[in-house]
Amino acid sequence: MGSGSGAGMVDPGPAGARAHLRCFWSASFTATRSVLDYAVDNSTEPEAREKMNPDPAEAADARQQGERVGAPVIELDCAADIAALRASDSYGRADHAAETVAKQSGLRVVLVALKAGGQMHEHHADAPITVHGLEGRIQFTVGGQSHELVPGRVLVVAAGLRHAVLAIEESAFLLTIGGRHPVHDTKGP
């Protein structure tokens, strides 16, 4: 982070202490939260190193989940999120997997990855949705009409319309659900 961005350094102890804690925050988040990054400089004690230097993957996962729920600004890395979703146990066990990657009042963003031939049976959303193709080819059927969803193509679907999804090849899409109570339901009109 550059100067003027709100970056700061906190010295937790005497001048001779080798471990230090760095707190970084962006100007847009200073009032609400900070993201902690732990580091150890040349510590000779393995226990101290483990305590002060958590597993980077675990720290990133914790930060990511915290940043995605109710934060004023949420940035997604769709390629990395798709890779993580495909590496998940749920994707290994089924023909598709989904994860809510962002949630704010009146809005939910869900990443969906499907294996070739994977499908989501007919259902409806109680709120309007957008479906943004990220990878592969998807047959999206709504109101008896099929649409091919490819990377860069977006469908906007009104609330309550029944729809189904079929992956023609391994695919991924970003689903955005609007409205106050965005619930997918397999029953109904």
What do these coordinates show?
InterPro entries: Cupin_2, RmlC-like_jellyroll, RmlC_Cupin_sf. Residues 44-64 are annotated as: Disordered. Residues 113-170 form the Cupin type-2 domain. Pfam families: Cupin_2. This is Cupin type-2 domain-containing protein. The protein is of the alpha+beta class and 189 residues long. The protein has two domains: 8-54, no CATH class; 78-185, Jelly Rolls, CATH 2.60.120. Helix content is 17%, strand content 40%. It is built from four helices and 13 strands. It has helices at 46-52, 56-67, 78-86, 89-93, and strands at residues 8-10, 19-24, 35-40, 96-104, 107-114, 119-125, 129-135, 138-142, 145-149, 154-157, 163-167, 171-178, 184-185. The strands form three sheets. A five-stranded antiparallel sheet has the order 4-5-12-7-10, covered by helices on one side. The radius of gyration is 21 Å and the shape is globular. Mean pLDDT is 71; it is low at 1-60.
Give a quick rundown of the structure:
This is Cupin type-2 domain-containing protein. This protein is α+β, with helices and mostly antiparallel strands and 189 residues long. The chain has helices at residues 46-52, 56-67, 78-86, 89-93; strands spanning 8-10, 19-24, 35-40, 96-104, 107-114, 119-125, 129-135, 138-142, 145-149, 154-157, 163-167, 171-178, 184-185.
